[in-house]
Amino acid sequence: MKPEEKIYKAYFETKKNNLYFNEIKELSKLSDSSLTNTLNKFVKNNILNKEKTKSNTFYKIRDKKIFALKFSEMAIYKFNELNIEIKVPLRNFLKNIPKEIHTIILFGSASRKEERKESDIDILIITDKKIDLKNNKKEAEITSKHSISIFHATIEQFMQNKDDVIIQARKTGFPIYKEQNFYEVILDEY
Asked: Which of 59, 92, 115, 118 has the fewest C-beta atoms under 10 angstroms from its C-beta?
């Protein structure tokens, strides 16, 4: 993995908009020189802002679009790495998904690859329209050992981040549909 990718991954995994040099170093496992060179390149290219305090230097996300793209790539990779008994039903669920949906987030034990026999697959649908997903759910559950639990929220509710389900989905989950929409909302809050 290239140094740039390791830095993007550090921000992706921590879900923070600014990280101290030592945090990035620990998460990326890069040498001081490699990390310094790459961070300087990010600052020069306006991808990150460098801010110094008395005792630390931290790097804050500046180019949110590029981070949204990189995070989307990582979410797609993460989806493809899911256990087969989770991934296949989700693919079936997503087959005929209405285009009006803003984003879909997988969260809970399935998103962490910690599901057990009795676990369900938790997904949060973000949309401002009333959408019937009974057929999608039925299609997915035909090929699944796990039931699918669907939660709904509007874009506004998702942005306000006050509901317990939304808080948990944002904290532990990742998008499985229209990934970039999810990250653009999250990164706009930084």
From this structure: 118
Nearest CA to 84 among 151, 167, 17, 146?
A: 146
Q: How many CB atoms lie within 10 A of CB 157?
A: 15
CA 37 vs. chain centroid, Å, equals 27
Measured CA angle at 17 (ends 167, 109), to 5 deg: 35
Q: Is the model's pLDDT at 186 over the cut of 90?
A: no
Enter the tokens of residue 27: 């998460």
**What is the distance, to the nearest Å, from the Cα of residue 52 to the centroid of all Cα atoms in its chain?**
28
Q: What pLDDT band is residue 190 in, cutting at 50, 70 and 90?
A: low
Rounded to an integer, what is the distance from CA 9 to the centroid of its chain?
11
pLDDT digits (tens, 9 = 90+) for 47-92: 999 999 888 999 999 999 999 999 999 999 999 999 999 999 999 9
Phi-psi region of 67 (alpha: psi -120 to 50; beta: other; left: phi over 0): alpha
Give the Cα separation of 37 and 51 in Å (integer): 16
Please state whether beta strands 18-20 and 57-61 pair in parallel, antiparallel, or not at all (unpaired).
antiparallel
> What is the torsional sign of CA 9, 10, 14, 15?
negative
Q: Using an 8 Å Cβ cutoff, are 186 and 17 in contact?
A: no
DSSP 129: S
DSSP letter (8 states) at residue 118: T
Residue 164 tokens, joined: 């317990």
